[in-house]
């Protein structure tokens, strides 16, 4: 569960506890307008009227952020994709696609001259 404050913090809670397990600050002192979870990538998108921040829900590590030229009003995340839309005070809705990069260990393989090696595949989008 996530809560956004009027002073720009996002607090993540385990519903079994009264204390947040993670607090993320936007550092603009603006109220948090929207929070969305991207469960397949373990990411959180949090938005105030100036910026959307995308970060890891377990560690709080920043992945990326998106700033608008005008005031941001609402966020719509399309499930199981890297696509999201932002309603703002401009004439057009902002649309973004941010592929999430993941290293996935597939298997070990044997090369006759090189021995055993781990094979890593770079994947874009959701798995």
Explain how this protein is built.
- This protein has a four-stranded antiparallel β-sheet, with no helix packed on it. Strands 1-2-3 form a three-stranded antiparallel β-sheet, with no helix packed on it.
- The protein has strands at residues 2-4, 9-12, 22-25, 34-38, 43-47, 51-56, 62-67, 72-77, 83-88, 94-97, 102-111, 115-123.
- Helix content is 0%, strand content 54%.
- The protein contains no helices and twelve strands.
Give the N-to-C terminal Cα separation: 23 Å
Strand share of the residues?
A: over 45%
Strand arrangement in the largest pleated sheet: 4-5-6-7
Q: What count of structural domains?
A: 1
Rg over CA atoms: 18 Å
Choose one word for the global shape: globular
Helix content: under 10%
Overall residue-averaged pLDDT value: 82
Number of DSSP helical runs: 0
Biggest β-sheet, characterized?
4 strands, antiparallel
- Given helix and strand content, the structural type is mainly beta
Query: Would you report the number of β strands?
Result: 12
Instruction: Give, in order, the helices and strands.
Output: EEEEEEEEEEEE
Low-confidence stretches: 101-127
Can you tag this structure with a few keywords?
single chain, 127 residues, mainly beta, four-stranded antiparallel sheet, three-stranded antiparallel sheet, disordered C terminus
